[in-house]
Amino acid sequence: MPNTLSYKTVITDPEGTTGDYFGRALSIEGNTLAIGASEKTMDNVDNCGAIVLYTRSSNSFKNTKWTFSKYLSAHDKVANDYFGGSVSISGNKMVVGAPGNDSSKGKVYYYTRSSANETWNYVSTIQVDEADRETDALFGRSVTLDDDFLVIGASGDKNSNDKTGGKVYVYTLSNSNWSLRETIDISTLYSVYNQTQNEDKKITSAEGDKFGFSVAMNKTTLVIGAKERNYYYGNGNVKFYNAGRVYYLNRMIDQNNKLTFRGWATTSNDDKTNDVYGTAVTLNDKYNTIDRNIRTPSALSENGYKKVDGNKNLSGYDDTIGKRPDYTIPEGSGLHGMLIGSDNNMFYYGTTNNNDGTGIVHVFEFTFGNRTKTLTTIERVQKHVKNLQSTGALNKQGLDALKRQYAGSVNVTNYLNGISL
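^ that's the sequence the OP posted. Answer follows.
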């Protein structure tokens, strides 16, 4: 049986108007849903943006009956700040990106709430040091928050090669202050970790990669989308323009006190031109993988939701997605937001261009089909031994042969030594 998506409902802004771009960003935490309307006019300030907050009676992922609660906008709102261009909630903390602030230099707002109510209180603003702020850097284009660990994408920022390929900023919280721990761009990833991908060593970072256009994080993994990164031949020439790429890192720090680079993923299409892979990313907490990397708004407009890309290198599973669901994303909908719900089975998609830019959020339920697991070494040995035991074929000679074969694995050796014949 293939994996399937079934359409459930839609969520709208009760006071939505043309050009609000409701659905630009989404975040769910328990019974709270925050949706960005990045060009909403508030208090007669044009395009300043807002977060639209909703609540529900229980946090079961099946409960998609969200009730409008209130609007949240910046206390120092300015026209064209695009507050709500990104949002992330973790516990009683929330960060909201305003990537359009100050000629698109961008900044991020930090809020907290008491557990007893839904009132979010402004705490501080996070931004690059004034001397280092760049016009069109789009700091805050993406955000992802996990307790005291914050990652902010600046998809138009200059990187270590002085090219506007994008950069990601990593912060940690101490005594209510966010401190910059490190910055990441494509060039530093490859220079620090000495990746051997020939095409990326030749073109380590290029103008317009849009690295940091999307970010997502769970307890162990950080993923970063570079939606307009080209795909190169080994000689450095472009093979597919704007193919897009997603980079993934371990949150466990290395000897340099930095996040550990693991690798990258791209679409499996034979022709990757304009796939803009990494337009949106999210992590499946249950399987610890880049489970749903939305490809391209244009492809979605033409073909509906045609494919969801899983990554077997991360998840250990080889997922094959079947036909698109019955519900097709509307023509020209401009998909921008994506999220897996608390139990990883609900998908919330923001289609910001719906109804002349008013925006709407679609809710789907994902059902896993047949999944073929890629076993670890110890799991393969255990399965093999159980098969031998079930047929009575396990003997001392065979057990000794297995011990010799896996002598380099402590876990397997300990397991085999514990078997009694």
